[in-house]
């Protein structure tokens, strides 16, 4: 009998649990109504680079950076990996400006040919030389 009384004191039934719950029908902050969609966040390249470089420095963990900037830690890890993967390509090119290819701007070249032909004809006419 004593054990039943102790059990009754220890467990007061489902009514005890229900009294602790609130059934307020006001929506919680951040909870979407049915049919609503959460908009995707779009981060700028500068922001991604800033957070990715902080992750590379390693002064804070990825989780700490995620909490600080409001970004999921997996996303920060992806940005960090992208920076590390593409950093080698930064110094691959040769020094100095790249030479312009003659095939890049054919209109400019045809214009220059026309101008040079006119100049040659004018010089021929002025000098009196007849060249084929």
What does this structure look like?
By secondary structure, the protein is an all-alpha fold. The protein has a domain at 43-88. Helix content is 55%, strand content 0%. The protein contains 6 helices and no strands. The radius of gyration is 37 Å and the shape is elongated.
Furnish the topology, listing elements before pairings.
Elements: H1 2-10, H2 14-20, H3 45-57, H4 62-69, H5 73-86, H6 106-127
For the biggest sheet, the summary is: none
Q: Helix/strand-derived class?
A: mainly alpha
How many strands appear in the DSSP assignment? 0
Instruction: Give helix % range.
Output: 55-70%
Q: Kindly provide the radius of gyration, computed on alpha-carbon positions and rounded to a whole number of angstroms.
A: 37 Å
What would the keywords be for this entry?
132 residues; mainly alpha; 0% strand; elongated
In short, what is this structure?
With 132 residues, this protein is mostly helical. Helices cover 55% and strands 0% of the residues. It starts with a helix and ends in a 5-residue tail after the last helix.
